[in-house]
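task queued by scheduler; priority normal; single chain, no ligands, no partner chains; default sampling; output format set to C-alpha cells
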Amino acid sequence: MTKFPYLRQDFTASLVVFLVALPLCVGVAVASGVPAELGLITGIVGGLVTGFLPGSSLQVSGPAAGLTVLVFEAVDTYGLPALGVIVLAAGLLQLIMGALKLGRWFRAISVSVVEGMLAGIGLVLIAGQLYATAGLKAPASGIDKILGLPGAAADALGSTKALTSLALGAATIAVMVLWKKLPKQAQAVPGALAAVILAIAATAAFNLPVDTVKVQGLLDSIQPPGLDAFGGVGVGIIGTIIAFTLIASAESLFSAAAVDRLHDGPRTEYDKELMAQGAGNTLCGVLGALPMTAVIVRSSANVSAGAKTKASRVLHGVWLLLFAALLPATLALIPLPALAGILVHAGWKLIPFRQVVSLWRAHRGEALILVVTAVSIVAVNMFEGVLIGLALSVVKTAWEASHVKLEVIDKGAGPIQAYLSGNATFLRLPKILDNLESLPQDRPVELDLSGLHHLDHACRTALENWAERHSATGTEPVKVTEPELESEQSKEGEKVTVA
C-alpha cells in the first residue's frame, strides 16, 4: 500500500467518474449523429491513453457536449468516414502545438470569447436536442433549429408518440435538476445515471412508444479511415480540422485551469497536457471515434469524489472498457428522449448566465464580446463565430490600448498650446485630427507630443501633414515637441519646427 498510498480514494473516485461519464459518452455520440459505441471508445481512450500521460493529474478526458454541434455538422457534410481523418489531423496538430510549447498561449484567449463559444454551443445544443426529446428531426443550421421550434411544438402536440417522448425527456431533465436537492447519500449515484435508469424502468413498465439507442457492437463501430477518406480532404475540411483543433484545445486547457482551482495537488503543465490531448485525439482518429477534450463535469466529479492521482481517471477508462465489452446490449435499453434530456441539461449549464450579468455591470465590452460570439455561432457556424469573437476581442483590446488625451490651452494671446498624451494610434486618429483642425487658422500653434508613450506611423504622418497645412496659411510654422520614446535625440521641452 505504501507504493499506492491513495489507491482506495482513487478507486472510489474512478467509479463515480465512470457513472458520470457513461450516459454522457452515449448521449454525446447519439447527438453527434454517430453510433453510440464511438462515444464509449473516446471515453476509453481518454482514460487509458490520455489518463496515463503527464499534464494535468486530475482532469478527465472524453467526448464533450461542447463539440457535439461541430461533429454533427462535420458528419452531415463530409460523412462518417471523414470524421476519423478530421480527428486524426486535429490530434496531430495538437501534438505539434504542444511540442512547440504553444499550450500556454491558449491562456491568452479572451475568457469572454471562450464563454461566448460555450454559450453558442449550448444554445444550438439545446435547440437541437429539444427536437430529439420529441422524436423529431432537427433542421441543419443553428438559426433554423431555433426558428423552427414553434412549428416543432405544433407538430408534437398532434402526435401521441411525440408527446410521450417529450414527457420522458422533460422528466429526465426534472430528475437531474431535483437530484441535487436530495441528501448527499443519494447523490452518490450521479443524477444523469439515475435519470437514465428511471427512464429505462418507466419505458419498460409502461411499454412507452419511444425510440431507443441502436446498438452495432463495439468492434463493428470501429471504422478506421481508409485511403479514400484521406483523398477527400479539401479546403472545407481543412477549416473544420482547424476548428476542431482550436476549440478542443481551448476547452481542454481552460478546463485544466478550472480544475487546478479545485484542488491543492500538482498544477497543470499546459504544453504537456496539450500533447496528451493530441495523443488521445490521434488514436481516436485512427479508430474513427469522436474527438475528445478534457471535460469539466467529469473532472470536477473526480476531484469531489476525493481522487488524489491520475489512477482514478485511468481506472474510469477500465470500467468503460469492461462495460462496452461485457454489457453492450444494455445500451439498447436506453430511450433516446432520456439522452436528449441529459444533453439539454448539459447545454443549459454551458450558458454562463451569471457571468454575463456580472460582466455587464463591470466590463460591458467583454459582455458584448461574449454575446456577439454566441449569437454568431448560432447565426453562422461554429468556426466563423469563434473567429468573429476573436476579431472583436482584438479590436477591443487595440481600442482600449489607444487611449489618448488632447488638451488645448488658449490664453487669448500668443500661440495656442496643444498637449497630446497616452497612445496615439490610427484608431484614435479621426478624433485627434477633428480637434486639431478646429483650431483657429490665423493663430500659431505649439503641439507638444512629449507625453505620448506610443506614436504609430499613421498618426505621425497625419500630424506632420496637418502641421504643414496649418503652417501654409501665412501663420508661424507649427512647433512640434517630439515624443521622448520615439526620438532619443530630442530632449524634454526641445522645439522642432515643421516648415
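post-processing summary
- Residues 486-499 have pLDDT under 50 and may be disordered.
- Residues 44 and 321 are 6 Å apart (CA to CA).
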